[in-house]
Amino acid sequence: MDFGRVPEAMLSDIDFKLPAEPLFNKQVLKGRPVAHPLTYLGCAKWGRKEWIGKIYPQGTKEANFLDEYVKHFNSIELNATHYQIYGPATIAKWDVKAAGMDFKFCPKVPQSISHFSTLINAGDKTTSFLEGVLAFGEHLGPIFLQLSDKFGPAKRDNLYQYLASLPKDLQFFVELRHPQWFEDEAVRMELFNKLRELNVGAIITDTAGRRDIAHMHLTVPKIFIRFVGNSLHPTDYTRIDDWANRIKYWLDKGLEEVYFFMHMHDEATSPELALYMTEKFEAVCGITVKKPVFVTGDAAVKAPAKVKSSKAAKSGPAKTPAKAQSSKAAKSEPAKAPTKAKSGKAAKSEPAKAPAKLKSSKVAKK
């Protein structure tokens, strides 16, 4: 993923510290841990030839990449569905690879819906997409909608109406990239209140060049994190340390599900950092997650020496996260928790008549 990429020389000067914990999250988390939280870790694609000889055995054919991938991770951010709508037959062939495993496929909404239609008149395509991914059955994880960096708050009505039309028995997350969603507190809080009202999660994307979208707001008691590393730069490890502390804090407050997806500008090194993440899950959160196993034995999980001059080299606090330093979007919420959004108030500019809702997923199975 190249989104948010900056020159390597700049990395040590970026403040990667995660923003302060918003008071908003108290409306979503119950304040006490759940008995059995679910944790999933994966990458964006299984078709990485660079992993042959690393976690895929030498001589692995492309047709067998998914067979190997499921041996190392328990989820995948399925970007393949962003470029094509697949029918149930193809989805079923992928699903069988994870038979008997606690594995989740997290499909990305097709770009024909998210980017080319601006969410208008997208009902038929959405139904076709959902009819396909429902073939994952129990292996279907959250479905995520990524909008382009040109889709700003001026199109909020399109977004809210589209999300309201989606089946309620499926979990959806949305990733927003336009800076105006995060620059103005009123716009930002309207967004998060509306997503909470619709039971739609807000994806948190942690990438070097866009610190504003690492927003820390939970609109459902689940998290979907897209972490963009920098080919095992020392700051990658200190950032993972910070995330482990934050996830532990959320788990203690009642977080139910974790979906953490590893991205790199050079995806060849994603397995190494994913392995480090599994070690932090275990050491900090007390959670055991499936580990990638390397052909020549486990890769070293010890982080390199920290960058002394880097603000990012400061590890996160073990308990309540520290206050953010600079980002406007990272400001903690006012002392008084925001009131619950009244029905329709957050989207008062919407047309009076909402579009017809899509068929429920149960109907779509037919």
From TrEMBL:
It holds the Pfam family DUF72. It comes from the Bacteria. Residues 306-366 are annotated as: Disordered. InterPro entries: DUF72 (IPR002763), UPF0759_sf (IPR036520). Residues 306-329, 335-346 have a biased composition (Low complexity). This is Uncharacterized protein YecE (DUF72 family).
